[in-house]
């Protein structure tokens, strides 16, 4: 209920106004003098409106409105006068009286002005409250913003990745702590303000920037770009290899690039070491089974030669001995040349990429492995077809294929069926290796590329085979799809895009 203060030194008028207003549901407080009224509005904050006479003994209505106006209260005042004149009207305007009404006051007129005055005050109060709330909100946001900024700064300085921002002129405008360390700069001042060119060797940067712009330009929505194996330069001219993720954004109409740079030298070294140790493990497995083959051949040769060299030996036995020796040495020869082929890989690896015929390499790898203990009792279905060229390092391809073949053989407990198919589909060469072995669960498939992940018993699996396969397919952009079902078998399909 709105509370109205009525000021008038004539009692009948006070009473009359009170009657009219209370009938409309307003609460009315009466005051016979301005001094009393001032005291009332000072001590009581919840008046919605004041209706005051102008002409009164002592302080008058103008004094009152002046007081209200100067004390900045949101309190509408309706002035009533029995003697309208320019001077009081002018004061009423100056001190922002809500209305200036002349007597006699008609009931409808006063009620309508009262209603408007109260509505207007309510609206001003609501607006003021809204403003107040929005000021609070702004304060909260500002402090959250500062918190975020602080958090951001803490993250940027805690991460071991270098974070560098450049503007459209390719000038470095921000670099975090890790950036100075990674690029061997003594302080922020030495890096900020320089062109980003200083971080690249020769003219490599333009190549990358072009590429980034090309990728991002094509797809407006794409605001992030990643590039592996970027060669970067430190302040002392030494270089290192990094993975770089770049995002672009526009701030105040200017575009910026922020790059997150991860030095992958260590990681690369570890991967190389893993590949090497797998190669060694692999070669020792091969060596054991091939040693066995050699031993068999030598035993046969030795037995026949010993018999043939006895004085009593018949000519036919001598012929037989020569034949066996020839066969066995031929077998040994292919075996050793194949081994040499596989063994030389470690030095030439990843440097030479050749166009090779998938059929030839598959046949070649099968020749090496099919007589080894792990594959000897497997049924291998393979029929080389038309020439299918792929670009790859042949040694790495052999390593990849033999890892898949040996896994397939193991999955069939070395006695199952392995089918190999090479074909062309939608312009790409496919190579699939299917086995009818014990297959894999989803969980095994999801971990298959993890180094050291093996389900095989101790001494049989190293858990590095598929990890090496992954390294190889990644470095040549080969796609590998695996489909498998427990107890049914697995299919590994390589898709060569070149
Ligand atoms: P390893 O052969 O030394 O165990 P790999 O990295 O070559 O290591 O393979 C990891 C695991 O993946 C194997 O232990 C096996 O569980 C699973 N795996 C790989 N190939 C096959 C396959 N053809 N059939 C069933 N399981 C397979
Ligand atoms: Mg394996």
Automatic annotation (TrEMBL):
<feature type="domain" description="Response regulatory">
    <location>
        <begin position="3"/>
        <end position="118"/>
    </location>
</feature>
<dbReference type="Pfam" id="PF02518">
    <property type="entry name" value="HATPase_c"/>
</dbReference>
<dbReference type="InterPro" id="IPR013767">
    <property type="entry name" value="PAS_fold"/>
</dbReference>
<dbReference type="InterPro" id="IPR003661">
    <property type="entry name" value="HisK_dim/P_dom"/>
</dbReference>
<dbReference type="InterPro" id="IPR035965">
    <property type="entry name" value="PAS-like_dom_sf"/>
</dbReference>
<dbReference type="InterPro" id="IPR004358">
    <property type="entry name" value="Sig_transdc_His_kin-like_C"/>
</dbReference>
<dbReference type="InterPro" id="IPR003594">
    <property type="entry name" value="HATPase_dom"/>
</dbReference>
<dbReference type="InterPro" id="IPR036097">
    <property type="entry name" value="HisK_dim/P_sf"/>
</dbReference>
<dbReference type="Pfam" id="PF00512">
    <property type="entry name" value="HisKA"/>
</dbReference>
<dbReference type="Pfam" id="PF00072">
    <property type="entry name" value="Response_reg"/>
</dbReference>
<feature type="modified residue" description="4-aspartylphosphate">
    <location>
        <position position="53"/>
    </location>
</feature>
<dbReference type="InterPro" id="IPR036890">
    <property type="entry name" value="HATPase_C_sf"/>
</dbReference>
<feature type="domain" description="Histidine kinase">
    <location>
        <begin position="289"/>
        <end position="498"/>
    </location>
</feature>
<protein>
    <recommendedName>
        <fullName>histidine kinase</fullName>
        <ecNumber>2.7.13.3</ecNumber>
    </recommendedName>
</protein>
<dbReference type="GO" id="GO:0000155">
    <property type="term" value="F:phosphorelay sensor kinase activity"/>
</dbReference>
<dbReference type="Pfam" id="PF00989">
    <property type="entry name" value="PAS"/>
</dbReference>
<dbReference type="InterPro" id="IPR011006">
    <property type="entry name" value="CheY-like_superfamily"/>
</dbReference>
<dbReference type="GO" id="GO:0006355">
    <property type="term" value="P:regulation of DNA-templated transcription"/>
</dbReference>
<dbReference type="InterPro" id="IPR000014">
    <property type="entry name" value="PAS"/>
</dbReference>
<keyword id="KW-0597">Phosphoprotein</keyword>
<dbReference type="InterPro" id="IPR001789">
    <property type="entry name" value="Sig_transdc_resp-reg_receiver"/>
</dbReference>
<dbReference type="InterPro" id="IPR005467">
    <property type="entry name" value="His_kinase_dom"/>
</dbReference>
């Amino acid at each position: 209920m709105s509370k109205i203060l009525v000021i008038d030194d004539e009692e009948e008028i006070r009473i009359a106004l009170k009657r009219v207003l209370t009938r409309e549901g307003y609460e009315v407080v009466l005051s016979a003098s301005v001094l009393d009224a001032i005291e009332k509005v000072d001590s009581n904050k919840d008046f919605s409106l004041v209706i005051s006479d102008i002409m009164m003994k002592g302080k008058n209505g103008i004094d009152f409105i002046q007081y209200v106006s100067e004390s900045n209260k949101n309190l509408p005042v309706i002035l009533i006068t029995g003697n309208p004149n320019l001077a009081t009207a002018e004061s009423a305007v100056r001190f922002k009286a809500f209305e200036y009404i002349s007597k006699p006051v008609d009931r409808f007129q006063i009620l309508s002005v009262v209603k408007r005055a109260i509505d207007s005050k309510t609206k001003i109060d609501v607006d003021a409250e809204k403003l107040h709330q929005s000021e609070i909100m702004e304060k909260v946001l500002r402090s959250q913003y500062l918190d975020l900024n602080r958090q951001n700064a803490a993250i940027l300085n805690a991460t071991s990745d270098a974070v560098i921002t450049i503007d459209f002129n390719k000038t470095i405008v921000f670099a975090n702590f890790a950036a100075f360390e990674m690029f061997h700069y003594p302080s922020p001042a030495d890096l900020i303000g320089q062109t980003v060119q200083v971080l690249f060797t020769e003219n490599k940067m333009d190549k990358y920037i072009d590429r980034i712009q090309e990728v991002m330009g094509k797809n407006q929505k794409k605001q992030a770009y990643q590039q592996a194996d970027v060669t970067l330069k430190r302040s002392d001219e030494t270089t290192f290899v990094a993975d770089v993720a770049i995002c672009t954004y526009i701030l105040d109409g200017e575009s910026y690039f922020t790059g997150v740079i991860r030095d992958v030298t260590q990681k690369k070294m570890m991967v190389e070491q893993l590949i090497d140790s797998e190669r060694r493990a692999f070669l020792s497995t091969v060596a054991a089974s091939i040693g066995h083959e050699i031993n068999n051949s030598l035993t046969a040769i030795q037995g026949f030669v010993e018999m043939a060299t006895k004085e009593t030996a018949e000519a036919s036995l001598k012929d037989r001995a020569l034949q066996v020796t020839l066969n066995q040495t031929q077998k040994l020869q292919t075996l050793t040349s194949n081994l040499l082929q596989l063994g030389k890989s470690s030095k030439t690896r990843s440097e030479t990429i050749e166009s090779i015929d998938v059929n030839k390499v598959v046949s070649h790898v099968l020749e090496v492995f099919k007589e080894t203990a792990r594959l000897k009792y497997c049924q291998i279905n393979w029929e080389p077809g038309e020439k299918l060229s792929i670009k790859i390092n042949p040694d790495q391809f052999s390593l990849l294929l033999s890892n898949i073949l040996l896994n397939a053989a193991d999955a069939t407990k070395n006695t199952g069926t392995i089918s190999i198919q090479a074909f062309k589909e939608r312009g790409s060469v496919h190579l699939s290796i299917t086995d009818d072995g014990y297959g894999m669960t989803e969980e095994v498939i999801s971990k298959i590329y993890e180094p050291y992940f093996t389900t095989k018993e101790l001494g049989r699996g190293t858990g590095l085979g598929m990890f090496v396969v992954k390294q190889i397919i990644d470095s040549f952009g080969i796609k590998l799809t695996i489909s498998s079902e427990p107890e049914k078998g697995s299919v590994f399909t390589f898709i060569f895009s070149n």
